[in-house]
Amino acid sequence: MENKKLKSLLEKLKGDLDNLEVQLNLGVMDAKQTFKKKRKEFSKTVKELETLGKEAAEEGSEKVKKMEEEANSLLELLEADFDFSYSEFNETPKKLDAFKEKLEGIFEEMGEGTEKAKSKFEKEYKDAMQRFELEMAIQKRRLEDNGEKFESWKEDILKETQELKGKLNNNIHVAEDKLDLFGKEMKLAVEHFKKAFKNLS
Predict the structure, then answer these.
(1) H/E/C letters for each residue in the chain?
(2) Of 56, 66, 63, which is closest to residue 125 (Cα–Cα)?
């Protein structure tokens, strides 16, 4: 019997890998314009998360004030009207991590009262954060090693992507009785891909 939840997750992962391939294959100018657009889109996500945190917390909470400070600091970079330099590519992930830490601190402080907000964060926003971090890693590498070195790195990543997609395509209709084994295999495959991407970045 087919596991519909697993199939949905695998199709989503495959879609993410397809998007990664598109990002890697963009030309320099197209990549810059696309990333500028992604920054503006992600700034909306940050504002939505800020609202989510405020709604989950107690009025006047000190943690909300700290979260707002981190959000504003992050938004200043995301909404700046210039192309990111090496400095901004280094600074933005740190600011994103600080904002996420303050947001998750609100969820922890409020306990059970934030289950709905926390669930929304996990389902709707966590993936958006990870995708943006991935796009930043690609753009940072493009800036550092534009030319033959970047092309070599890109080919290595694309090879890893194709291998992982192949495993997904071959097993996307995995039977229920093989679910546990396949889940472990896919977890290892995804971890290997992440490690390869990190090592090549």
Answers:
(1) CECHHHHHHHHHHHHHHHHHHHHHCCCHHHHHHHHHHHHHHHHHHHHHHHHHHHHHCCCCCHHHHHHHHHHHHHHHHHCCCCCCCHHHHHHHHHHHHHHHHHHHHHHHHHHHHHHHHHHHHHHHHHHHHHHHHHHHHHHHHHHHCCCHHHHHHHHHHHHHHHHHHHHHHHHCCCEHHHHHHHHHHHHHHHHHHHHHHHHHC
(2) 56
Task: Tell me: pLDDT of 154 over 80.
Answer: yes
Among candidate residues 201, 199, 182, 200, the one with its CA nearest the CA of residue 13: 182
Among 127, 120, 107, 114, which Cα is nearest to 67's? 107
Count of residues making up the chain: 201
Amino acid letter for position 18: D
Q: With 80 as the cut, is the pLDDT of residue 179 above it? A: no
What pTM was computed for the model? 0.73
For the chain, the domains span: 4-200
Joined together, the tokens standing for residue 78 give: 């995301």
Neighbours of 49 (CB within 10 A): 22
